[in-house]
Design goal:
This protein has nine helices and 23 strands. Strands 1-2-3-15-14-4 form a six-stranded antiparallel barrel. It has a five-stranded mixed beta sheet with strand order 7-16-13-9-11, with no helix packed on it. Strands 6-8-12-10 form a four-stranded antiparallel beta sheet, with no helix packed on it. Helix 2 crosses helix 8, helix 2 packs antiparallel against helix 9 and helix 3 runs antiparallel to helix 5. The radius of gyration is 24 Å and the shape is elongated. By secondary structure, the protein is of the alpha+beta class.
Length: about 475
């Protein structure tokens, strides 16, 4: 397996290199691609709701060996721990063994479709492993009995065996635990895993953006949570502008149960504007939920949760006349990009431009626009609308596991978890993808395919003729 730099440096790859650079340049010029640092990833348009946590590090672990064509690589394998914003602790295992974990990286609870699990046919087997091994099965004597492990299991062995089994399905890696008992557990989990459904989110609001006329209920926004109840916090300036959060009968709402619909109540004489509500609850995060980072730190899957604070937000826009847009977005790994949903509740069309393509949303229309994005590149852009409306979208598309050689592995080592960040230079429109930090062939092929669609085959044909003439 070659890195993206090696691929694009081979003889005869000039056309591919030019094509990829053209797409990256186009995205950068359009304001879509940005530096990969945390500051570029503080967007709000694609917040799904749920837990937000900070990586603490690898806490309970043993050793494993990954076998590759270039040799073996010894790594640590086990449970990570995260601190939840607002209170709580999460225990997680990782997927994407080739990517490092960055200490203090911020993570958000994420649907499988926004991670590599969304395109992995074995994701449901990973969910089974998480629910049927340590720490969900905390009785290690019982876990050893089920797995047929003589002599029992230590917590380190249980964590290592569970992580190895997960890697075999998340990365389809040739990996084994160091230690016969941990390896026996990994084999048992791998053999017995059965597909299970993706767990629901700890807390969501749908839709996340609504629009309407002042003087009329704007919504509804439906709250869904595993908690018994959730508190609803009205917009920060609600008292000043008269905006209230109400139920379908117009009564003020401060607490809701799962399935409750709420509305923004905006005074009829209110000038055009926007407002945001926050819903918060205390609950355990369901085992099997994915957690994705803001800055390309290794994707995690939830193995255990204390009572934790979870939250979600919804925005509303209003105006008496003209276009009244509402925008939200969701990363779609199956399609390799960002799905932007636009709604227009006004009486005039709403238009915006992305990558030199103009989209017009008619009055009363709802449309989803697919924006293809390169893997592992930070994106950061804002869509503007009438009356000062603006919605920012920022993040890092992280949809593929890195299928590299043993020499490419950048995970924790057996001596201990390497928690220093990976040094990835800020992206720029250059002649190759070296600045992306990617190490697999697959992301390059994906980006190249998008580029060829955008540029057509004419450029490649001309270059090939030139090369033939020179030969």
């Amino acid at each position: 397996m070659f890195s993206s730099l090696a691929l694009l440096s081979r003889p005869g790859r000039g056309a591919a290199r030019a094509a990829v650079a053209a797409l990256v340049s186009a995205l950068t010029a359009a304001g879509v691609l940005a530096g990969a640092g945390p500051a570029a990833a503080e967007g709000v348009g694609q917040e799904r709701g749920g837990a937000t946590a900070t990586m603490g590090g690898l806490k309970t672990y043993g050793a494993a060996v990954i076998h590759g064509p270039d040799g073996d690589q010894r790594v640590s394998a086990g449970l990570f721990e995260m601190a939840v914003e607002g209170g709580g602790t999460l225990q997680t295992y990782c997927v994407d063994v080739q990517t490092s974990v960055q200490k203090d990286a911020k993570y958000h609870e994420t649907p499988w479709g926004g991670t590599s699990l969304g395109t992995n046919k074995d994701a449901g087997r990973i969910a089974w492993i998480l629910r049927n091994s340590y720490p969900q099965v905390d009785d290690l004597t019982e876990l050893a009995r089920r797995a047929g492990v003589p002599g029992g299991l230590t917590r380190q062995e249980a964590a290592a065996g569970t992580q190895v089994a997960i890697w075999r399905y998340s990365d389809h890696a040739d990996v084994e635990a160091v230690g016969a008992r941990a390896e026996r557990l990994a084999d048992y989990l791998e053999k017995n895993a059965r597909a299970q459904a993706e767990p629901g989110a700890s807390l969501t609001v749908e839709p996340r953006a609504v629009a309407g006329r002042p003087g009329e209920p704007i919504g509804p926004v439906t709250v869904r949570t595993g908690a018994g109840s959730a508190t609803v916090t009205p917009p920060a300036d609600a008292a000043a502008n008269g905006v209230r959060i109400v139920d379908r009968k117009g009564r003020p709402v401060t607490s809701v149960a799962s399935g409750t619909r709420v509305y923004f109540d905006v005074p009829e004489d209110a000038p055009p504007g926007t407002a945001r509500l926050t819903v918060q609850a205390s609950t355990t995060v369901p085992v099997g939920r994915a957690l994705a980072s803001e800055n390309r730190s290794q994707t995690q899957v939830l193995a255990g949760s204390s009572e934790s604070t979870v939250s979600a937000t919804a925005t509303a826009a209003w105006a008496a006349t003209g276009a009244v847009p509402a925008l939200s977005a969701e990363e779609n790994c199956a399609e390799g990009g960002l799905d932007i949903t636009a709604v227009n509740k006004g009486d005039e069309p709403f238009s915006f431009t992305l990558l030199d393509t103009e989209y017009t949303i008619a009055p009363g229309e709802r449309r989803t626009v697919a924006l293809p994005l390169p893997e592992d590149r930070a994106y950061d852009f804002t869509i503007n609308g009438p009356n000062g409306y603006a919605q920012r979208f920022a993040g890092v598309l992280d949809c593929r596991t890195q299928a590299g050689t043993a020499a490419d592995i950048r995970t924790q080592t057996a001596a201990g978890p390497p928690l220093a960040p990976v040094n990835v230079p800020a992206p720029s429109a250059g002649p190759d993808l070296a600045s992306t930090g990617g190490s697999s062939l697959t992301p390059v092929i994906g980006v190249l395919a998008l580029t060829l669609i955008a540029l057509g085959g004419a450029t490649l044909l001309v270059i090939r003729r030139r090369e033939t003439h020179q030969d």
